[in-house]
Amino acid sequence: MEALLRRCRVPALGARHCGIRAQHGGTAGRPRRLLLSQLFQPLALPVGGQAGPEGRPGEPTCRSQRLMLQGGLIHPTSPGCYCYLPPTVRAMEKLIKVMDEEMQAVGGQKLNLPSLCSAELWRASGRWDQMGPELFRLLDRHNHGYCLGPTHEEVVTALVASQSGLSYRQLPLRLYQITRKFRDEPKPRFGLLRSREFYMKDMYTFDSSEEAARHTYEQVCAAYCSLFTRLGLRFVKVQAATGSIGGTTSHEFQLPADIGEDRLLLCPQGHFAANVETLNGEQTSCPTCGEKLTETKGIEVGHTFYLGTKYSSVANAVFSSAENKPQLAEMGCYGLGVTRILAASIEVLSTEDSIRWPSLIAPYQLCFIPPKRGSREEEGAALLERVYDDLAEALPHLAGDSVLDDRTQLTIGKRLKDAKRLGYPYVVVAGKRVCEDPPVFEVWNQNAGEVLFLTKEGVIELLSKVQVP
Amino acid sequence: MEALLRRCRVPALGARHCGIRAQHGGTAGRPRRLLLSQLFQPLALPVGGQAGPEGRPGEPTCRSQRLMLQGGLIHPTSPGCYCYLPPTVRAMEKLIKVMDEEMQAVGGQKLNLPSLCSAELWRASGRWDQMGPELFRLLDRHNHGYCLGPTHEEVVTALVASQSGLSYRQLPLRLYQITRKFRDEPKPRFGLLRSREFYMKDMYTFDSSEEAARHTYEQVCAAYCSLFTRLGLRFVKVQAATGSIGGTTSHEFQLPADIGEDRLLLCPQGHFAANVETLNGEQTSCPTCGEKLTETKGIEVGHTFYLGTKYSSVANAVFSSAENKPQLAEMGCYGLGVTRILAASIEVLSTEDSIRWPSLIAPYQLCFIPPKRGSREEEGAALLERVYDDLAEALPHLAGDSVLDDRTQLTIGKRLKDAKRLGYPYVVVAGKRVCEDPPVFEVWNQNAGEVLFLTKEGVIELLSKVQVP
To answer: Which residues span the membrane (chains A, B) (predicted)?
Structure first.
């Protein structure tokens, strides 16, 4: 049979197919240039006074939703459901890499739990009834009930409970996943800020004592702080309500923003920060220092819960203690909104008409703009392409992060305007000074708001500092 | 407000939290060693005559399902739904990287489409009725109907149709995603080979003519051949039925295996290969050369369809032709089963009691086994750890791919047996010869079935050839 199989494979692997593949570069050799005209990023940028898409009629919009629709980043299908278009997937994959690094730095182990969660399991925890209409529910062909998991406390606790012989020596267990979640929002709105399908990073931790679990809680919170700091996002960590998840201690990570749906009260001295939903009545001054609290609105991007044994006692998730006795695991759970962080970043960093990304996770780091076809500087096109290719060779980690705006029927000014709106951290232009000897290129550092004039070597030197996850 | 926020962040970023993080190594500096005792991989390996889990009572099992359950790779929740445990997630992420490379080498652009697909859209294509009970269906809180997408022809075609002004110059468009899919199988079985939730890579292509679409079809098939070849899997490409997806040409990529659910007829000379479901009656000889056809069974791991305008005509997915006339796009769709390829690889490569992975996507490339605690060779433990650390420094791409089996209460023999069952491509043992000068280590190349005795430098030299995606 082996001979037979080898024979059958010949047509698929023969010279003809290799020839076809060679046209596209393949994985070996110099990566081909990414041409903007070939990228699927259907722009609906406003031209002059004409407005781009504003969401569905009657749907409330916010800056990030509008910019993401106009910039070809998302496309709506049903209320609260979006296609994530290629640049969004790129940003999301970068964000996921950063999250993986942070979670693994605190001992996180990644798994992947089913979306279909059995009604039986959710009835046992009481959440089947408690969640009400927020839960998407369905029946399979045998009439067994399921919900589409918005979080996975029940499933992961049952998983750990099934591991007979779990020893205290194996704890803490810090298990996480980064997967699509579902919530039937009463009013999906604001694009990816409040959608019915979204990606979330959720971690579940299992410790041998309350003290150990509190230590885990602090470590995961610190990892969240590190993440937002690396993204360059200003955030506040506030005390929060535990809601339907339950537990006794909870914090939210909030990005202050006018569009935020949470009201926060903050001590100007940094002694106290709370979501107002946790406060009884009219608290106006800091319980520690007495300073008057300031109110702001925030977008929740992370949420942590100290759960105790709420779920482990239902599923009987036990470990053998040092005294060889079965003991319930002390749990915590920790969520980061992946798609929500993308939108919230755009919400807080962008201007009215120009997207700004956290540099680390921008879909593309670089846009190259060659001269207009037929212009006096036209010969500069080859020089710019040389910068593109040499940069890709010198800084291979940026090779796939560079786009060449080959729409040379348009002026540089028009294309630069688009590049500014789309928010590439760096834009390299072959302008008038490309005809000098040596050629000089215009480099826009958009997040710093500065323009530099540099030779090819200067461009490569400058960009050698750019990080990608 | 800025001052206020800065203040609020101080506690989160202060020395106390940094101190906590430092204990875990973080992303900078030498990566900590991965200790097997701390990894969440609940083994249920058979000990002596005692059998491990065999699936649920009455559920048919196969080799890959049994080995994946025993090896702590998957854990069942509901029929056809599994938790993917950490080693499986690692293998899956590696496989996805290889798929991304292959898809992007043929111009694929990655997006991500919603799981909730509106009934309306599926009624328009006729598949709402046609798919019958295989479709998971649900209502949202407003009584709007949805299915959980098993594939996304309707959604992606509507997306492309919504792009007014699409020009023939922008074609071909080759859009793909790698996401979780749903199918209410009548009989979920064989673990990840036929489950109700699974990951699939699905590509949808849009071309300006039938000729161009046929060219795309060949290119994507060639990319599939390249993928399976890189994984070292023997496969056959056979003509296939188009089923509920539709279209006029279709091929399956099959891994020959006794457990396979498809019956294939192959010409021993390689002139002809077909799924029997495409043949009328009793075809026994090759239509080209007249040779007698051989029958084999196969596991379908990929499926390609030339669709023509079946979906583009429903959604009116048009582009402007060179003559500036609207013209329907010619489509193709292409699927690879991600989780199914993982299980099928184990099915065809493993022995009865030992997992074997395609080397490229093994969860971990390397397992280090130090001597038993209290044995004569005990001092060799430090020497082996030195190999681990120096290898991680010399070959940083393998740093995260190495595991130290620190269960030193067990004999080397017992741990080596586990390592063989779990299928690390390489196992490095500090055996008797670790006491020689210079120390000599035992290296098991499990996929080649050979043992080498090497110095530290020899180990690093040997492993420098190991590829990770």
So the answer is: none
CB contact under 8 A, B136 and A133: no
| Cis bond upstream, residue A172 (ω within 30) | yes
Facing B140 at nearest CB: one of A86, A136, A175: A136
Residues of A in contact with B21 (CB under 8 A): 105-106, 219, 222-223, 226
* B112 to A84: CB separation less than 8 angstroms, yes or no: yes
- Which is nearest to B91 in space by CA: B464, B444, B423, B465? B423
The ipTM of this complex is 0.92
Set of chain B residues whose Cβ sits within 8 Å of the Cβ of A140: 136, 184, 196
Contact B21 A118 (CB under 8 A): no
pLDDT in tens, B189-232: 999 999 999 999 999 999 999 999 999 999 999 999 999 999 99
More confident residue, B231 or B32: B231
Q: What is the mean pLDDT of residues B450-463?
A: 97
Q: With pLDDT > 70 as the criterion, what percentage of chain B qualifies? A: 90
Instruction: Please report residues of B whose CB lies closer than 8 A to that of A111.
Output: 40, 83-86, 88-89
Flag if A180 and B17 touch (Cβ within 8 Å).
Answer: no
To test the contact with chain A by mutation, choose from B32, B35, B45, B78 the residue with the greatest count of A C-beta atoms within 10 A, namely B78
Q: Does residue B54 register a pLDDT over 60?
A: no
pLDDT digits (tens, 9 = 90+) for A92-139: 999 999 999 999 999 999 999 999 999 999 999 999 999 999 999 999
Domains of chain B: 89-348 (3.30.930.10), 364-463 (3.40.50.800)
Question: What is the distance in angstroms between the Cα of B15 and the nearest Cα belonging to chain A?
Answer: 11
